[in-house]
Amino acid sequence: MNSLLRHKGWTWGFRTTILLYFVVLIVLPILGVYYNSFSLGFGNFVESISDPIAWKSVLLTLKLAIIATLINVFLGTMIAWVLIRYQFIGKALLNSLVDLPFALPTAVGGLMILLLLGPGSLIGKAAEALGFEIVFHQPAIVIAMVFVTFPFVIRAVQPLLEELDPSEEEAAYTMGAKGTKVFWHVILPSMAPGMISGGMLAFSRALAEFGAVVLVAGNIPGRTLVSSVFIFGEVESDNPVSAAAVSVILLTLSFLILWLINMLQMRGRRS
User: Fold this and answer.
1) First CA to last CA distance, the chain
2) Is residue 149 situated within a structural domain?
3) The domain containing residue 255 runs over which residues?
4) pLDDT tens digits, residue range 159-210?
């Protein structure tokens, strides 16, 4: 069997299949988006992204994605720390639930947020009594983004904590360093690559979130209309060029983020 797999014909077939898969499912759709965004000329592209509703949706998406990413970096690092450093009842269940947003349809996640925080829920009524609302406002969008990007930082930090040599911490304690100093100078630098790469992936994912956001945002232009919902609306309005123009912005940002992650990983391997 091994000799059969090593045969040049099989090797060529595997490589061709992988390349075709990559080209058909990834490269061609991306090129199609870029082509359609510039199909009517660069001037039309600039006009599309200069539309107040379009660029406000992009800026709002960037702002809320950054907030969601910061929350995820903080909470995700804490949860990864607890899962690695502590033993408690239900740890295995909690560890498996971390990946639930990956398996759950995002529309279901949005429905869960709507039922939990909506106007008819206990939390929603309590919020209204205090003079503010969660669902159909920006906080709901942040919560939806945090939910769908929840596992990224946790799964990026966990392996780094597992690989951290306990002797480094012991040596720091032996030299008289206190717990906070050990954390800032020994533990945090080891976790930092995972926090950064996981945060970047969470940010990139939050930029493109649609299923959970569309149910809880309210989709008011200039206030709660994010880029993904704007793109959907433009397609529904038979304006694919404008939708492609905004998509190009999100695609370019995602490419830059992935490039930065690869650069950080390469530097980490060299060091």
Assistant:
1) 39
2) yes
3) 53-269
4) 988 888 777 666 777 776 676 777 787 788 888 888 988 998 899 899 888 8
